[in-house]
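Before going further, learn to read the protein records used in this course. A complete example follows; check for yourself that the lines match position by position.
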Amino acid sequence: MRTQWATPALAASGVDWSEVHAVRLLGLALGALILLWAIRRMFGGK
């Protein structure tokens, strides 16, 4: 599952997948926070 997006060249290039997943999780968390903020603003929250 880890390399389903990766080409063999990318997998062999020494990519640190823990960092890739950490960045992806950070992006998801940031997106969720922005979404919650937007929903709160839409319903009149501050």
Q: What stands out?
A: Helices lie at 8-11, 17-42. The mean pLDDT is 82.
